[in-house]
From TrEMBL:
Limits of the HTH cro/C1-type domain: 9-63
Domain of life: Bacteria
Protein name (database record): HTH-type transcriptional regulator PuuR
Annotated signal peptide: none
Keyword vocabulary terms for this entry: DNA-binding
Record SMART domains: HTH_XRE (SM00530)
Entry GO MF terms: DNA binding; DNA-binding transcription factor activity
Gene Ontology, cellular component aspect: cytosol
InterPro entries from the UniProt entry: Cro/C1-type_HTH (IPR001387), Cupin_2 (IPR013096), Lambda_DNA-bd_dom_sf (IPR010982), RmlC-like_jellyroll (IPR014710), RmlC_Cupin_sf (IPR011051), TransReg_Diox_bact_type (IPR050807)
PROSITE patterns per UniProt: HTH_CROC1 (PS50943)
Species for this entry: Rikenella microfusus
């Protein structure tokens, strides 16, 4: 799946007659970074993917699934999840600690993006600035371990069984300040 995201972005951009420079300006991403994403030389963060999808007038799910509208139900089995790494951020100092597993990547025309996210321990690394911010809403439910949400000026420490629902337009960052890995179920809603 990782190798498809860049190809889908390039395909959607070309189908819509949008130049690399124009998409760069619309999404607020440098031309060099966008070019590397399209060539699959770097894995974008979730926030960057959302900005690209909006600039293309496409749903986030279209970038992750690369398919057109589909009205069928999609079942994701636990046994299939481990091999279903959708993307992992590798931007230096930002989101490299997150690994995203799509729960419904075969459902292309969706309004929500359900993901299981593995959060590596931060090892005392500082919270990056700027944090992620994009239109939409997010729901996070801690499955295992502990997670810390930095949300605007607030900090929420969450344990297994805890959840939080928030507006994604507020700068936010999800961290794991424990010494054990954590897993959360994250459901994102990103309007066009």
């Amino acid at each position: 799946m990782l190798a498809i995201i860049g190809q889908v972005i390039r395909q959607l951009r070309e189908e819509n007659g949008i130049s690399l420079e124009e998409l760069s300006a619309r999404a607020g991403i440098s031309v060099d970074k966008l070019d590397k994403i399209e060539k699959n030389e770097t894995n974008p963060s979730l926030g960057v993917l959302i900005r690209i999808s909006r600039a293309l007038g496409a749903k986030l799910g279209a970038l992750l699934a690369g398919k057109d509208e589909d009205r069928s139900a999609v079942v994701t089995r636990r046994k299939d999840l481990a091999g279903n790494l959708t993307f992992a951020g590798n931007e230096e100092g930002y989101n490299g600690h997150l690994h995203f597993y799509a729960m419904a990547q075969d459902k292309a025309d969706r309004h929500m993006e359900p993901l299981v996210v593995e959060i590596a321990p931060s090892g005392g690394a500082p919270v990056p600035d700027p944090r992620s911010e994009h239109s939409g809403e997010e729901f996070v439910y801690v499955l295992e371990g502990e997670a810390t949400l930095y949300y605007g000026e607030e900090t929420y420490r969450l344990e297994a069984g805890d959840s939080v629902y928030y507006d994604s337009v507020v700068p936010h960052f999800l961290a794991n300040e424990s010494d054990r890995p954590a897993r959360v179920l994250a459901v994102l809603y990103t309007p066009y």
